[in-house]
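#struct-pred

JT: dropping the chains for the assembly here, can someone run the whole complex?
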Amino acid sequence: MAKQDRAIRTRRVILSAAAQVFEQRGFQAATISEILKTAGVTKGALYFHFPSKEDLAQGVLYEQDQQDVVQDQACKVQQLIDTVMLHAYRLQTDPMVRAGVRLSLDQQAHGLDRSGPFVRWSQIVRRLLSEAQEQGELLPQVVVTESADVTVGAFAGVQAMSQAMCEHNDLLVRVSAMLRHLLPSMAHPSVLTSVELGADRGEVVARMAAESGAQQPVEVS
Amino acid sequence: MAKQDRAIRTRRVILSAAAQVFEQRGFQAATISEILKTAGVTKGALYFHFPSKEDLAQGVLYEQDQQDVVQDQACKVQQLIDTVMLHAYRLQTDPMVRAGVRLSLDQQAHGLDRSGPFVRWSQIVRRLLSEAQEQGELLPQVVVTESADVTVGAFAGVQAMSQAMCEHNDLLVRVSAMLRHLLPSMAHPSVLTSVELGADRGEVVARMAAESGAQQPVEVS
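RK: done, full complex below.
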């Protein structure tokens, strides 16, 4: 293995361990020595990649939305749906995504800037909505920044509710219902009649992405 | 003061102290001795009302939605809007409500059943939507249970996003935008043209309720 590959691999092992520990303990109670033990790497390697617990948490927060790359599509509203449903699917199946989402809602994580994922997700949704607007897919009164923030906020809460009620078991059904409620105030009715937003959409998109090779396969640690 | 009044007052003092400590420390790190110290009551009084930390947390969780009683209105969609906007206003101004909402999203609160507020809020919204449906205010395809859950979940996330971004400063604007996005897929257009759902609606409703005497004044500790 080349030196660089090894470094990337080590970084990933450390982040997976951090995700696991943060998810179990929360940010405040988690310790670097526990993350070290779980990762099975040297102290030097860990501090080389992540000088502090905050850096580890920011690493996990950053990873959560990095794999949600959906292929370009003619209909931008469909691309937005696919991005959201893929994220929901990953949240159910990928511990790194789950840990990132949990950290961003961890209210006891004093000193940790948790706005990052909200800001990044807003940017992703804004870009897709802007493209949809340029193509004439949206209703005339839509304010892209506002609609993007409502979508991102609503998603965060719908997943939290699904987690509190049944450990995310009904997440995909709930997110699909959320989109059916939000989209009629954003997109033209003619666009809505042709989109697919069933609860199985995230899995379909994940499979398409894996087959096209456009995406890293989902890692389940 | 009659004996019963004193007991009610003591219970409230304890709950306020618990709300404060849970909000600062989170459920896991909070200790009964810290709540005791903050409340300034005897150990006996505290254990009489709340035998365990879980009971204290359930007390705070339960209190958060108890003051959101909005007067009956002819238009049930307006009553729903008022209930949601009043809750958002309370969340900004009442530490007990804030602590309850935070507890219900505290993912490190292992052993604490956090589904209560979600379930109770769903019931409140379901009842109002059912009444709106009976009065013909809703669109024919609306499934009340689903629309209620989407609304409750979306609210939880929109407030979490507002908290992470700016400590709830823009909460009322965000919740108003959320309602403008959700309601068009629930209510008849003719109903929507006559409802008030601006960002100041919560304060207006709180003032109306206080003036009518239907409600306890908001306690700010």
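JT: nice. DSSP finds eleven helices and no strands in chain A. The radius of gyration of chain A is 18 Å.
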